[in-house]
Amino acid sequence: xxxxxxxxxxxxxxxxxxxxxxxxxxxxxxDFRCLISAVLLTAAMGVVAAxxxxxxxxxPLQTQAKAEAYRVVLTPSVYSRVLATAxxxxxxxxxSLGRExxxxxxxxxxxxxxxxxxxxxxxxxxxxxxxxxxxxxxxxTNGDIVIEQPTANGSxxxxxxxxxxxxxxxxxxxxxxxxPEALGDVRLSVAVDASDDLQTWSTRESNSTVTRIARGExxxxxRTITIDGSTARYYRLRLLDGKAPWSxxxxxxIILTGSYTDAAADRYxxxxxxxxxxAATSKAQGGGVDYDYRLPGVLPVEAVRAAMADxxxxxxxxxxxxxxEGTSWSALGTLTAVRVQSxxxxxxxxxxxxxxVAMLRLHTDTPLSQPPSLQVGWHPDTFVFxxxxxxxxxxxxxxxAARRGDYAVDVAIDxxxxxxxxxxxxxxxxxxxxxxxxxxxxxxxxxxxxxxxxPLLWLVLVAAAAMxxxxxxxxxRRGSKGGDSAP
Length: 487
What we know:
By secondary structure, the protein is of the alpha+beta class. It has 6 helices and 26 strands. Among the domains are: about 55-110 and about 380-445, no CATH class; about 115-130 and about 155-260, Galactose-binding domain-like (Jelly Rolls); about 275-295 and about 305-375, no CATH class. The longest helix is centred in the C-terminal third of the chain and has 33 residues, at about 455-485. The radius of gyration is 44 Å and the shape is elongated. The relative contact order is 0.19.
């Protein structure tokens, strides 16, 4: 008989490894890193876009060549789009990423140096050293040299000093005597002095030799005197040794070579003239007529000239300026305007220190049939920015709240000039047509948010009073019910 024995070992079902399940089916959890990255990206985009939204208009800047810095000359269009109260501090330059770059007013360049050459005649101081005490050397109203000597002190001694009028304040490097051949051989030792008032003299060359000897191939011709020093208008040639070969009234000519600077003349020559038409005509309170002219913005004006509308007219005007509506008028000067027949270019120019002007007024005591046309001479403000970041660049203009910071651009420009020529200037960046950035809203004060503190406080007080009244009314009702139920 077969016997079957049941196995006492019961096989258990294997449970799946939880670690393997986790690897095969990872839990679906939200990755906060993605959210943080998105938030940071959005914030960064907001920061980059913020400068453009703070300014009303944007001007594209066209740069022709690659450089470390660029120069920006403002136009009347820019002045008309900035706030007068901001003092041009609501101007910035941003790169293609929208980031603000270093931007500031252009440092003043050194005055332009002009070459100078003058051929003039020596002016003798009468008498020798024993007679100069009675001689008066002075200037007339034009600055020309006037030499006076009393008749009683007249001397027949040969002059030993000669004066030279440079006509303007100049820095002379060389003096060359023009000696006629008829004078023969010449050998002189001379000194050169300089002065600005003919009274106080400073020595520029203590001893120089002038020699001309005609000996064929061995001829010597040294007629140039080399000097140095600061600028001066008047120069004096003093004879130290030798005898001048020319007679009185036959003084030789001398050629002056050097350089000069005239910042005032250069500045006037570089003025830009902007024509204006009268905006209003009114009778003045004290008599006469006022002609008002409006500028496109608050411009830095340095000169004014007027042209008469009718032929054969002349008038004298007093010029006043204002920085805008509601501001006081300040006197700038006077000018005259004359027109004879068809000539409209007569009259003078009123020049003054730079004034920031938004309106001009011409006042005349004699009314005219037509108001004169007006031209203002001005120098636009020049700014410079460093080429930080990728191009293209934009000039943002006009903002109520945003203001440009102070950048040390002048230090960078000085370092760039040290590697360039003395008259180096950054290349110009041309302004394009303006487009809206933040719009007119950027020029106005932001709306103040409504203060909910006071209404909420009153609401709380009214609610508390209502609750107190309700509690009092409830207590009164309970008291009245208790009184009615009493025996």
